[in-house]
Specification:
By secondary structure, this protein is an alpha/beta fold. 44% of the residues lie in helices and 18% in strands. It contains four helices and three strands, in the order βαβαβαα. It has a three-stranded parallel beta sheet with strand order 1-2-3, with helices on both faces. The longest helix has 17 residues. It is globular and about 40 Å long.
């Protein structure tokens, strides 16, 4: 995977990862593409704890580089705001800015 960093955002399905994402990760296990790769996890629902925990477990086994400071939950449950509305929300904008700055500083 030709990138310095990867961000994964996924919904929760039946208390776990959607099958398509799990299958994609399963295909990458043997290749070692994610070994040592810095990763960030972005979540849009505070109730998606099972999916995030499953994703953390899978990525850890794959050798991805995970740091809790690059995990973010933006509580958008039941909402479909535009990017402009999210950017205009002071709390959400500040959380996303802090998240992106932590990602950028981890690349230095």
């Amino acid at each position: 995977m030709a990138s310095d960093f990867a961000v994964i955002s996924t919904p929760e399905y039946a208390h776990g990862l959607p099958g398509s994402l799990k299958n994609a990760l399963d295909w990458l296990v043997r290749s070692g593409e994610l070994y040592g790769k810095p990763m960030a996890l972005l979540n849009a629902s505070p109730r998606s704890t099972f999916a995030q925990a499953s994703l953390i477990e899978t990525l850890t086994i794959m050798g991805a580089q995970l740091a809790k400071e690059t995990f973010l939950t933006v509580p958008l449950l039941g909402q479909t705001p535009s990017p402009e509305q999210i950017a205009g929300n002071p709390e959400q904008a500040a959380a996303l800015r802090k998240f992106l700055l932590k990602i950028a500083s981890s690349l230095e």
